[in-house]
Design brief:
Blueprint (H helix, E strand, L loop, with lengths): L9 H17 L3 H22 L27 E9 L13 E9 L25 E8 L12
Antiparallel strand pairs: 1-2, 1-3
Length: 154
């Protein structure tokens, strides 16, 4: 029965000692862990900043943004005129017909939110129409423009 018990040899004990020392060396200390963490954080930051868009707009020569994404088409308080026509044709071209003109409102101010009967910048027009199928053509012009709507150069 004594033959079944393994005997530790000197070579075996050296291998066990080397394995224990290797385990101690493979595990980094506090500063090694901190260094690894910082390097990983910098790496992730660089990758994410590469895909992120710039939040500050680039400026042109006069300090204005180089690209304007949206702006008003007309300046505030520009006087405009509204012409509203009714027609049975889908494409309306008879702008000289006074019978087709059902509403003309002149002197409207662009960006004025306090005008109108309710003080909210809106106007209303009510009428009765006997035609079953009707089209509305509404045109807004600047007040200084010519009102000849048949011309192609407007």
């Amino acid at each position: 029965m004594a033959d079944n018990v393994p005997v530790a040899s000197a070579a075996n004990s050296n291998q066990v000692q080397n394995a224990e020392q290797g385990a101690d060396q493979a595990r980094p200390g506090f500063f090694g862990t901190l260094k690894t963490l910082v390097v990983r954080m910098l790496f992730i930051y660089m990758i994410s900043s590469f895909f992120r868009r710039s939040s500050t707009p680039t400026t042109g020569t006069e300090g204005q943004p180089e690209k304007q994404y949206s702006q008003n088409l007309y300046p505030k308080n520009l006087q405009m005129d509204l012409y509203m026509y009714l027609s049975e044709q889908e494409t309306f071209t008879d702008f000289d017909n006074e019978n087709a003109l059902v509403w003309k409102k002149t002197g409207l101010m662009y960006g004025d939110w306090t005008s109108g009967p309710n003080g909210d910048g809106s106007y209303e027009k009510s009428m009765e129409i006997d035609t079953p199928e009707i089209y509305i053509c509404s045109i807004i012009y600047m007040s200084k423009k010519a009102t000849d709507m048949n011309r192609k150069n407007n």
